[in-house]
Amino acid sequence: MCYNTAMYIHIGGTCTISDRYILGIYNLDLTTSARTDDTTRRFLARMEEENRVVSLSDDLPKSFIVTLEGVFLSPVSVSTLKARLLTGGLNSESD
User: Fold this and answer.
1) Which residues contact 68 (CB under 8 A, 6 or more apart)?
2) Does pTM top 0.70 for this prediction?
3) Residue 36: pLDDT band by 50, 70, 90 thresholds?
């Protein structure tokens, strides 16, 4: 089945985005630790230099969401964001 409606996902703070714009959701600790390749750190640094990183909270971010427009640093865990996506997020028809 294919649906033509978007889901809206609360990703932290006051930010809700359409699932259509999400390219990936990543665990910040796992992808930027000293034990991993520095590709993710370089990507995030480049996005920061281009002013394309938005921090959604003053708390330490647990995840980052890559979108068509940039990167969101979120205090919400990857597992919670995944659960929100799998349960339908905020249905666009009810908004």
Assistant:
1) 21, 23
2) yes
3) confident
Transcribe 28-79 into DSSP letters.
HHHHHSTTS-THHHHHHHHHHHTT-EEE--SSPPSEEEEESS-EEEESS-HH
Measured distance between the N- and C-terminal CA atoms of the chain, rounded to whole angstroms? 23
Nearest Cα neighbor of 22 from 95, 94, 93, 74 is 74
Determine the pLDDT at residue 2.
55
Strand partners, 65: 25, 72
**In contact, 5 and 93? CB cutoff 8 Å:** yes
